[in-house]
Amino acid sequence: MKTCPKCKELVGDNVDSCFNCNYNFILKRVPSYEETIEFQENIAAVKKKQEEERIELIKSAPRYEYTTARIIDNADGSTNQMQLQSVLMEYANAGWKLHSVITNEIGKNVSSVSIGRFTGGTNATMDEVILIFERMISRGNL
Ligand SMILES: [Zn+2]
Questions:
Q1: Residue 113 near residue 39 (C-beta atoms within 8 A)
Q2: For residue 15, how far is its CA from the centre of ligand 1 (angstroms)?
Q3: Most CB atoms closer than 10 Å: which of 47, 120, 127, 136?
Q4: What spacing in Å lies between the alpha carbon of 47 and ligand 1's midpoint?
Q5: pLDDT, tens digit, for every residue of 74-85?
Q6: Distance from the CA of 33 to the center of ligand 1, in angstroms?
Q7: What's the 64 CA to ligand 1 centre distance in angstroms?
Q8: Phi-psi map region of 83: left, alpha, beta (phi>0 left; psi -120 to 50 alpha)
Q9: 44 Cα: distance to centroid of ligand 1 (angstroms)
Q10: How far is the CA of 19 from the centre of ligand 1 (A)?
Q11: 16 CA → ligand 1 middle, Å
């Protein structure tokens, strides 16, 4: 915080002018009405230019498309590596690059049999694996 030298109001360190009396910390005085308008117009012009540059940057950036593929675990809960391998090959051949992977638990198979004091059973967790693929569709001109 800093103190306005004119009205003694406490203002933020990176504030250019006092909200109470309009004292300008850069000019070190209270600007005229015309100066205040000019100052505000300059700020608006800078913001407009920054926004135009941002839009230009977005327009010229490379473009991508995305798709997903779903792989379900084997019945015993292990990863279906065969399917995973073939899906990866298939997409790679079509120009896709693996972007990210989501694993989602879709169920548990629980069965237990009790015979006397012996209990047997299986407890496998089934997951689905979602592969997210990315492919560039336009290079852009950055
Ligand atoms: Zn002030």
A1: no
A2: 11
A3: 127
A4: 26
A5: 888 888 999 999
A6: 16
A7: 51
A8: alpha
A9: 23
A10: 7
A11: 11
Give the domain ranges of the chain.
2-60, 63-138
pLDDT at residue 65 tops 90: yes
The CA 29 to ligand 1 mean position distance, Å, reads: 10
pLDDT bucket at 25, cuts 50 / 70 / 90: very high
Entry pTM: 0.57
Look at residue 114 and tell me whether its pLDDT is greater than 80.
Answer: no
Instruction: Write the secondary structure of the chain as one string of H (helix), E (strand) and C (coil).
Output: CEECCCCCCEECCCCCECCCCCCECCCCECCCHHHHHHHHHHHHHHHHHHHHHHHHHHHHCCEEEEEEEEEECCCCCCCCHHHHHHHHHHHHHCCCEEEEEEEEEEEEEEEEEEECCEEEEEEEEEEEEEEEEEEEEECCCC
Dihedral angle at the C-alpha atoms of 12, 14, 17, 23, nearest 10 degrees?
70
Are the CB atoms for 128 and 138 separated by under 8 Å?
Answer: no
Q: How far is the CA of 50 from the centre of ligand 1 (A)?
A: 30
